[in-house]
Amino acid sequence: MENSQDAYQMGVARFQQGDLDGAMGFLVQVKKANKNEQALAMSYIGRIQTLRGEYEEAEKTLRRSLSMQATIDPQSLYFLGECYFYQRKWNEAEKYLRETIVREPKYTDAYIRLGMVLREAKRIDEAVRAFELAIVNDQKAVVARYQLAQICVDREDYKRALSQLHFVKDLAASYAPAFVLQGDIYQRLGDHRQSIVEYCKVVEMGKGDAGLYWRLGRSFMAIKDRLQAVKAFEQAIRMDKAMWPAYFYAAQLRDEFQHYEKAMQHYRALLAVEEYRAIAKEAIDRLLKHISNFDLTSDPEPIEENVKFDPPPVTTKVNATHTLEAVQRQLTSQIGGNRTAPLKAPTSIGKDHKWIEDDDEEEEDVASPAARYAAKYQGADVVDHVYAALRSGSFGEVVNVLKNSTMDEITGSIRSHLDPLLNSVKVPGALKGAINKISKKKGK
Asked: What SUPFAM superfamilies does the annotation carry (predicted)?
């Protein structure tokens, strides 16, 4: 391209569109005739190298860019501070981010990135101040509010955390990390149904990753919906082959359902992990007694890929136990920067969930079948369990649920939920009549 200025402008435009390769193609064409313009082009080249993980090259490029500038550009300083951030060099990152702010006090992203550096350095009060200053600069600073919410969660100040998340979701309705963090708060508070609502919204956005499905599995376990729990755990496994706790819970649940071959697959995978090896060996020995002609030396059949969850357009706390849709895309941050391309802030999704104990108490077995169903199916939960039984084809279970429910009557609201469920599943006509007869009798 003959016009160096056009090459620079085209390169910046491509960069802002997220086309890093296209941007690089234009930026390298900027001529030496305009030294300052070439220096600014080099700063963008350094940023591209940072985003590609080429940190050493990026550092050299950005330092060279700064040395060529007659007047130091705050954005170039920010790019260098960001490069050090990704290398976890907190002191260097802090130095250049603070220098950015001195030269440009309204540089919102510099405050946000500085807050992240200070948080990583465990200087939490200073981090809070940096995020608050970012919000003073820009009331719509989504990342700053989200980071403040995370700090509030760490401090168990859930009220303030939820307040910040309310702003975030108002400003950026599709910002998935906010829904995940809100789900985490409800999970900590023991409101697992509401946590499922928040997590399912992320699934509906198409942004569920392995960590999210792990969380969903634990919440479904907490409300005793083991059918959805095992599906969530197995989806987590598909997305992260090294999520060993998910293998463990999936194996136990498949074992419970007497799906012995699937349980065996999960236990065999756990043989590779010392922490689970002894338990897995014991379980395999026990399961072999239930499986005929099962060749332990052969590769296991792959877990089916066609398990689907079907969320409605809007997930609510009432229908949360019936929803999920298996997706394959990883969660990506969607953050609006002030002067730069969107920041890549760390999300709250991960595999370490310290507030989830591994020794959850299981429901107690009751000797009498009638007493067992009475203890298990109470109140509105009867709809959830009828739904699960219908979906799994356990029609006899449906009859037992309704016969042994402790409700004095099945209210109109329960009937309004039950009828669509019966109509949505292929139920033999005679059985449907028996189910209706039982439920109507109870409603008298």
From this structure: HCP-like
